[in-house]
Every structure is written in structure tokens, then in C-alpha cells.
């Protein structure tokens, strides 16, 4: 398994790979993981190491910044030739960099960081992989998409089947911005190369799989869907945690808000329903947030006059987040602008068993998932009037002590069930 993020790193991408590794190991698979997490300093939760089965061997390779690495080489080269330069240009002005030179530098820098900012992991990962006994097949999880490129190179070295798992779209990602056509063409070439060398391509939503098949009809037969999910045992000992009065109805949003996941329409709607008498509503945002329309989330809360109803909480550990979610009456989900993707936190919501207020586009992968879980969610387009209607409906219908989703043990989104599908696909590859 190539998984850039793996315990002890606690980020969204960790849990899909960890869940598959744990469940595959319990099914008798011999798993070795190549990761960068052992060298990473941010988002560390050492308790996650207890969830890695002892029989799963983890190898770690450092991740360097390729631009810094190149600059260091150039700097050393300049120092070696400094005497020659001084002699060459003594008595006359040294040449200056023109626009063309600067543009070329920017292009080279951008290409070095394509497909993502983790290309500095490629060479160290290939070096560490030399120590790993040759496996029967490779499974790679992305983003970062550098992982898939490493996996392709290892497939060519070992001449074994390759499974590439896409947690997000690559070149069609709505958050992806290209500065030049050259960079876009290079990125599409890398993506096409990965599709070509993959023996099995997994998308985590049906809409992403449909797009992959539309753009790559020649590879349609090897594109399958395995959704995200949750590990049931992670929720067995979660106790509710709440610092809000039980007389109020508490909505929680755990995790970062960024890009198109904009809460301003929600805040405007909340102000309206509070004025209409829904005064027991309270909201807690846990985690960091981008600025929206040039202002921080806390500034917008003050501007809307919501400081007595909306609280901000700094990031906390995973277990505490789950406990806070368990103690809430409802869970907020912002999925605007991501029709192909489903926020991973949705599956945590399903496992926690609380009502969900989701905001996004009707024609989206998130709405597709929610429609398979009847009577557990409220859906709103990202429009103030639509959100007002949903908030009022939630306010009138909610029993603050009731858990809506109960039979999660038999859910098709439970990781054990999903891993069984993955195992069958892997066995099919080996039989071929």
C-alpha cells in the first residue's frame, strides 16, 4: 500500500487507507505500507498507532521540497563558479534577469510541483521501496497524486498488478487551478499515464467513476466504485460530550471550512430563523476556516449579530471531536461546489447517528449518498430561503435525545463490508 498519510498522522486521507489495511490484514492479506507519515510533524495523533495491526509493516520515506532542493544545487553551483563570474564581469554591469527568464523560472517551479506539492516524496519513496520484498500487487491511495506516479514506477520495476484508488478527482478537481496551459497539459499527461498503467481504478463515488469512464472510455472496464465509509469499532466506546444546555438544539460542524464550502448563506439563514422564534438553536464550528469575502468567520459571526448563538472551537483530537458530535442534536455538512466528491466526514456522521443538515447541489455525489439513508437528513441548496426552510423543519421536528440512524452495523458503508469488495477485486487481479 502506498499511503502518504497513515498513522500517526490524523488527516482525512489516513482513515480510508488505515481501515482497508486493518480489514485486509484480518482477512489474511500480508500488508506492507509505504508512507511519509513517520517524517511529518503536523496533525499527529499517536493513539492512532494502536489501530495499526502488529502484522502490518510500515515503511516511511521523507518528503522534501523539490524547489528548495533545486535551489540548493544551483546555489552550490554558483558558489563554485563565483570567482569565474567576478572575473568575467569585472569592469562591466552583470546581466539582469528579464521577464522571459522569470517566466521560465516560474514555469519550472510549477512543473516541479505538479501534480501536487508532494513530488519531493517520489525519489525517497522509490529508494525506500528497494528494501521492501517484492509484493504480489500494489494498492495506491491519492491524493496526493504523486503516490500514483510512484506506484506506476514500482509496477514497472516489479511487473505486478497496480490498483489506484482515487479519493478525489485529479485534473477535474473543482479546487484545482492551472496557471498555464503547459502545466495543465503536463498534469493531464500524468493522469492519463496512471490510468494506462493501472490494472484497476477505484473511484469513491459513482459520479467520479462516471466522469472517469466518460473521459477515458478505453479504460472504462477497469473502473470500479468503492465508497468511503466508517470503521464500526471506532464508535463503540464514544461517549457524548456537550458544553451546551440540553434545553437548546446544538448543531456542530467539525473540520475546516475552505474554498467553495462557504458558510455565509447558512449564517444569514440562521439569523432569520432566530428572528422568527427558533431561539433555541446553537451552532458550534470546530476547526480552522478560510476567510470569506475578505473576512474571518468570527468577523462574519459578529456582523450577523450571532455571537451569542454561534461559537468557534479550535481543532481537537479525533476522539474528542467524535464525542462532541455524539453530544450534538444535529451535524452540519457543507458540500458546495463538489458534485463529484463526498466530504469524508459524512460517513462519520452516519456512524454517529445524528440528524444531518446538508448544504450543496442537488445533483451531487453527497446527495446520492444521503438518499440511501432515509429520514436521517435535511437537504438544502446553498440559498438563504432554502436553508431557512430546512432549519425551521429541523427545529420543529428534532427531539434532542433521539438518535436517528441506529442499524449502522449492517450498513453498506461499514468499512468491513467495503473491504470485502476490495479484497474480491484484488483476488480477481491475482487470478488473472
What this model shows, in words?
With 432 residues, the protein is an alpha/beta fold. The chain has 2 domains: 12-64 and 115-229 and 414-431, 3-Layer(aba) Sandwich (Rossmann fold); 233-410, 3-Layer(aba) Sandwich (Rossmann fold). It is built from 15 helices and 12 strands. The protein has helices at residues 12-26, 66-80, 82-88, 99-112, 122-129, 146-158, 181-197, 206-215, 264-275, 297-303, 318-326, 345-352, 365-370, 384-397, 415-431; strands spanning 32-35, 57-60, 138-142, 162-166, 200-203, 223-225, 249-254, 281-286, 310-313, 330-334, 355-359, 377-380. The strands form 3 sheets. A 6-stranded parallel sheet has the order 9-8-7-10-11-12, sandwiched between helices. Strand 7 (249-254), helix 9 (264-275) and strand 8 form a beta-alpha-beta unit. Helix 6 (146-158) packs across helix 7. The longest helix has 17 residues, at 181-197. It is globular. Residues 400-406 have low confidence and may be disordered.
Amino acid at each position: 500500500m502506498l499511503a502518504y498519510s497513515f498513522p500517526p498522522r490524523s488527516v482525512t486521507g489516513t482513515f480510508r487507507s488505515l481501515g482497508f489495511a486493518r480489514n485486509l490484514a484480518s482477512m489474511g492479506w500480508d500488508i506492507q505500507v509505504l508512507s511519509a507519515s513517520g517524517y511529518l510533524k503536523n496533525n499527529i495523533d499517536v493513539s492512532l498507532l494502536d489501530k495499526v495491526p502488529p502484522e502490518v509493516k510500515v515503511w516511511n520515506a521523507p518528503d522534501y521540497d523539490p524547489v528548495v532542493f533545486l535551489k540548493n544545487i544551483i546555489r552550490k553551483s554558483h558558489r563554485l563558479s563565483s570567482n569565474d563570474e567576478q572575473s568575467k564581469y569585472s569592469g562591466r554591469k552583470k546581466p539582469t534577469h528579464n521577464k522571459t527568464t522569470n517566466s521560465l523560472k516560474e514555469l519550472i517551479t510549477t512543473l516541479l510541483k505538479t501534480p501536487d506539492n508532494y513530488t519531493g516524496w517520489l525519489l525517497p519513496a522509490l529508494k525506500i521501496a528497494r528494501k521492501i520484498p517484492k509484493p504480489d500487487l500494489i494498492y495506491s491511495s491519492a491524493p496526493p497524486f504523486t503516490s500514483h506516479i510512484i506506484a506506476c514506477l514500482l509496477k514497472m520495476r516489479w511487473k505486478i498488478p497496480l490498483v489506484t484508488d482515487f479519493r478525489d478527482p485529479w485534473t477535474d478537481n473543482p479546487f484545482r487551478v492551472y496557471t498555464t496551459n503547459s502545466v495543465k497539459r503536463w498534469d493531464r499527461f500524468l493522469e492519463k499515464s496512471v490510468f494506462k498503467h493501472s490494472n484497476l481504478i477505484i473511484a469513491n463515488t459513482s459520479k467520479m467513476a462516471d466522469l472517469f469512464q466518460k473521459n477515458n472510455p478505453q479504460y472504462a472496464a477497469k473502473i470500479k466504485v468503492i465508497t468511503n465509509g466508517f470503521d464500526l469499532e471506532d464508535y463503540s466506546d464514544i461517549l457524548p460530550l456537550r458544553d451546551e444546555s440540553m434545553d437548546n438544539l446544538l448543531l456542530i460542524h467539525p473540520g475546516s471550512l475552505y474554498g467553495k464550502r462557504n458558510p455565509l448563506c447558512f449564517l444569514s439563514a440562521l439569523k432569520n430563523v432566530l428572528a422568527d422564534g427558533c431561539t433555541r438553536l446553537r451552532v458550534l464550528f470546530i476547526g480552522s476556516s478560510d476567510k470569506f469575502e475578505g473576512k474571518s468567520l468570527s468577523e462574519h459571526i459578529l456582523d450577523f449579530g450571532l455571537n451569542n448563538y454561534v461559537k468557534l472551537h479550535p481543532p481537537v483530537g479525533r476522539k474528542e471531536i467524535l464525542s462532541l458530535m455524539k453530544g450534538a442534536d444535529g451535524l452540519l455538512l457543507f458540500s458546495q461546489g463538489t458534485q463529484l466528491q463526498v466530504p469524508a466526514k459524512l460517513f462519520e456522521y452516519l456512524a454517529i447517528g445524528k440528524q444531518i443538515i446538508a448544504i450543496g447541489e442537488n445533483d451531487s455525489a453527497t446527495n446520492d449518498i444521503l438518499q440511501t439513508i432515509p429520514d436521517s437528513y435535511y437537504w438544502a441548496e446553498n440559498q438563504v430561503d432554502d436553508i431557512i426552510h430546512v432549519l425551521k423543519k429541523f427545529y420543529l421536528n428534532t427531539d434532542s435525545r433521539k438518535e436517528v440512524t441506529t442499524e449502522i452495523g449492517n450498513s453498506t458503508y461499514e468499512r468491513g463490508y467495503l473491504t470485502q469488495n476490495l479484497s474480491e477485486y484484488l483476488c480477481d487481479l491475482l487470478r488473472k
